[in-house]
Amino acid sequence: MPVTSTNVPHTANAVSLRELLGALDTAVVFAPAGHGETPIATLALVETGDLATELESHTPLPDLYLLVGTGEAETTSWFGALAERPSELRPRAVMSKHPAHDGALADAAHRAGIALVAVHPKARWEHVFGLLGRMLDRSRVEAAMDPDLAATDTDLFGLAQIVAQNAGGMVSIEDAQANVLAYSPSDDSADELRRLSILGREGPRDYLRALRTWGVYDRMRESDDVIDVPAHAALGTERRLVVGIRRPAEGGGPAPHVLGSIWLQQGHAPFAPDAEAVLRGAAAIAARIVTRTRNAPSAEGVLIQRLFGARGSGVDVPSVSAALGIAATGPAAVIGFAPTGPAPDAGGFAELGSVLRLHASSFRRDSVSTVIGDRAYVLLPEYQSATSIAAWTRALVEQFETKRAIVLRAAIAVPVPDLGHVASARLEVDRVLDGTAATFPDGRVTTLAESRTPVLLGEIVDLVAADPQLRDPRLDALIGYDEQHASSLCASAAAYLSAYGDVRAAATALRVHPNTLRYRIRRVQEIVGIDLQDASDRLLFEIQLRAHGRTA
After folding, report:
1. Where are the alpha helices (H) located in 448-534, listed in sequence order?
2. C-alpha dist (Å) from residue 42 to 7, 275, 434
């Protein structure tokens, strides 16, 4: 299913196609005439196999489509089918990496009345999608702002334009991971490094290595200085000025945190005399914009978090359903994701949430996702198959580990009756994610039904561990014996109980001789004063050992 950037209706404040293409700069290689003022309010990214599914919809399609990996013949056929639909049910523009100025594909788009835009073959689709989404978000925010405030405020795109006009040259603003967030228009003096960054590609490795050798990145982390990076003829790069975007340290707090950087490439004319002062001021403004963006979720984001039970309790289900464009009733699925081991920092987890949203929307166009604390959640309305959801979740967890070295656990709640039960389903999912590795019987993905026993048992053990009155003092004698004699009677007893009293199986797990384990079990019974052949003693002692393991 396609990835959609937003669920706002077509009547929402739109951006002209001309403005959107201008934001993409050299990533666009051809745009047809006569469509510049076409309003765009929604966009979607579709992959091979999704086009036929889109034709099944009898509601207005997103205004702008980004076609990823779709064949030319398949796309031409899709345009032909769209031409048979009423104009109000067709998209208004399509972006593709196929040539768009002539041929059967261009003819089919023209007959359907759809603007066909050719994107540079080396442009990264996720980069293009993100830039377009930010442009649409920017338009909606500006439309909702007080006019007086709007006159004094700006976003990163606006800031890039202002810096370029006042400092001279061409500006690009990057985040801490060197992803381009915004930039000013390019001219024919733009070097290959700038062109690659606008396409969402990494710069030449030799140049990046040179930046590290020259200490550029270290200086950006350590000071607010504007750094002069000389031209490098061998690498084909022009002179640049760069300044770090740093969140200032607050009283007694940690050192300043680097949020990104602003790069100014020299063009045909030299930099303005006060270019360094302009960059320092821009860095301060950019820090406020980036921080504000991180800390102030959109109205839609707040609504989604309320749906999941955060930011206050209770939601008006019909209103949420209408605002998000999702079904209010019918079986839904809630999936929670949590990192295994140390959680990424706030920036890293926000990025993880964005990537997760991308994958979830690709799986289900009407999916809804959010990040709450150090966990991410996905709602899949009107799911068709619990098996397919579990398979998708497992594949996603494996993909994150393989491609991003992030190890996740996931818990699935199905079925969720309606939107009114999403918050309670999230709490159930959290109960599973709070569990130990034993909660996940077949790896790192489980459902509530599969994990009910270990979840409840784990919570019972936690209650026992937290209440001193429920602790059996006889266990202290065994713990003391282990400490005094450097023995492992507690571990031996735990293995014996886990093996249901099978001495040979437990001995194999402990890598000791069965007779050694038999001796240890006799010593345990003597020291504690219990009979492990008695069902009540056995149950109580296993719970006590597990509770000790949680607090040890």
Report:
1. 448-466, 474-485, 489-498, 503-510, 514-528
2. 7, 38, 38
What tokens appear for 106 in the block?
């261009």
Asked if residue 9 has pLDDT above 50, the reply is no
Cβ atoms of 369 and 356 within 8 Å: the answer is yes
Fold of 154-295: Beta-Lactamase (3.30.450)
Three-state SS annotation for 4-43: ECCCCCCCCCCEEHHHHHHHHHHHEEECCCCCCCCEECCE
Rounded Cα distance, 480 and 457, in Å: 26
Q: pLDDT for 295-327, tens place per residue?
A: 655 667 778 888 998 866 567 888 888 778 788
Specify the domain boundaries for CATH 3.30.450.40 within the chain.
Answer: 154-295
Cα–Cα distance, 136 to 4 (Å, whole number):
12
Q: Under a CB-based contact definition with an 8 Å cutoff, are residues 191 and 239 in contact?
A: no
Both tokens of residue 492? 């031996």
d(CA 548, CA 543): 9
Give exposure, 490-512, as e/b (b: 16+ Cβ within 10 Å): bebbbbbbebeeebeebbeebeb
Residue 467's CB is within 10 A of a number of other CB atoms, namely 10
Residue intervals in the chain for CATH 3.30.70.270: 299-456
Contact call for residues 353 and 447 (beta carbons, < 8 A):
no
Asked whether residue 7 carries a pLDDT value surpassing 60, the answer given is no
The HSE-up count of residue 486 (CA atoms within 13 Å, CB side) is 0
Burial zone of 135 (CB within 10 Å; 0-12 exposed, 13-18 middle, 19+ buried): buried
Q: In whole angstroms, give the CA distance from residue 335 to residue 349.
A: 17
Domain 467-551 has CATH 1.10.10.2840: yes
Whether 538 has a pLDDT exceeding 90, the answer reads no
Q: Residue type at 210? A: A
Q: What phi and psi, each to the nearest 5 degrees, are found at residue 410?
A: -140, 140
The H or E element spanning position 352 is: helix 346-363
Residue whose tokens read 């002069």: 228
CATH class of 3-141: alpha beta
Angle between helical axes of 489-498 and 503-510 (0-180°, round to 10): 130
Which residues in the chain are classed under CATH 1.10.10.2840?
Answer: 467-551
pLDDT in tens, 109-166: 999 999 999 998 888 888 788 788 877 776 555 554 444 333 334 678 888 888 998 8
Q: What superfamily would CATH give domain 299-456? A: Reverse transcriptase/Diguanylate cyclase domain (3.30.70.270)
Amino acid at 467: D
Closest residue by Cα to residue 525 from 513, 535, 533? 533
Show the tokens assigned to 360.
Answer: 């979830």
Backbone angles phi, psi at 415, to 5 degrees: -85, 150
d(CA 93, CA 110): 11
| CATH 3.40.1390 domain range(s) in the chain | 3-141
pTM for the full model? 0.48
